[in-house]
Amino acid sequence: MATQHREAALAESAALAPELLTSTQGTHADGSSRAPLSCTRIMDAAERYVDDNCLSELTMRRLGNELGVEAMSLYRYFPSKAALLDAVASRLLGGLALPVPDSGADWEAQIRAYSRSFRTLTQGHPNLMPLLGTMSPNVPPLSDLHGRLVGLWHEAGFHAADAERAQRALQCYLSGSSQWHRTTCAGADPDTDFLFGLDVLLDGFRSRLPA
After folding, report:
1. End-to-end alpha-carbon separation of the chain, Å?
2. CA atoms within 13 Å, Cβ hemisphere of 66
3. pTM, two decimal places
4. What are phi and psi of 41, to 5 degrees?
5. Dihedral of the CA atoms 178, 162, 137, 183 (nearest 10)?
6. If you classify domain 96-207 with CATH, what class do you get?
7. pLDDT in tens, 49-106
8. Which CATH code fits 2-90?
């Protein structure tokens, strides 16, 4: 458990301040010179590899080959592949349109903005979707995301338990529809289908708000 917490902390640090750990110029596996490694370079390469291939095919050895370095060089920056993937996911999640607590902005507009940004993320990086499903909910980016959205449901008027349920229902729709529309049920206009489903969901939430 302590190791998992340390790796989560390292992943968060790498995602938030990726240039804090940067090496001097080094060498390729064949001895030729290469550009310096950094957390950013490694995360960029991992993201590209997964986008072009699939999550299950990524290994530290293959990533080292992509960067022209020995796999062991990567462990100076990330203690494990899991820590690297957590950092990649954290960086991607940082681009979501999260609600601003106590901003006074319309709750429905903020839910729509978050929902659209989540769909944009999953459309841009569909092969990383399985990673989001396996991340621990205690990893800071996910716990912060969940907490801020539950807080928004509170502001909308839901009681504590129903605010949690509303967020789980919304996230299930966003995650499920991203995969469903990409594979088994991609209609002629999946974006319109997505927005239709979101409208129906929000209509249901609105009808359950306390009078």
Report:
1. 45
2. 20
3. 0.80
4. -60, -40
5. -10
6. mainly alpha
7. 999 998 999 999 999 999 999 999 999 999 999 999 999 999 999 999 999 988 888 9
8. 1.10.10.60
Under 8 Å between Cβ of 198 and 172: no
Other residues' Cβ atoms within 10 Å of the Cβ of residue 38: 17
Alpha helices in 17-106 (DSSP H): 39-52, 60-67, 71-74, 81-93
Domain boundaries, the chain: 2-90, 96-207
Burial grade of 31 (CB within 10 A; 0-12, 13-18, 19 or more): exposed
Structural contact between residues 51 and 125, judged by C-beta atoms closer than 8 angstroms: yes
Per-residue pLDDT of 157-169, as tens digits, reads 999 999 999 999 9
Contact predicate 46/122, CB 8 Å: no
* Residue 21 to residues 1, 11, 28, 41, Cα–Cα distance (Å): 25, 12, 19, 11
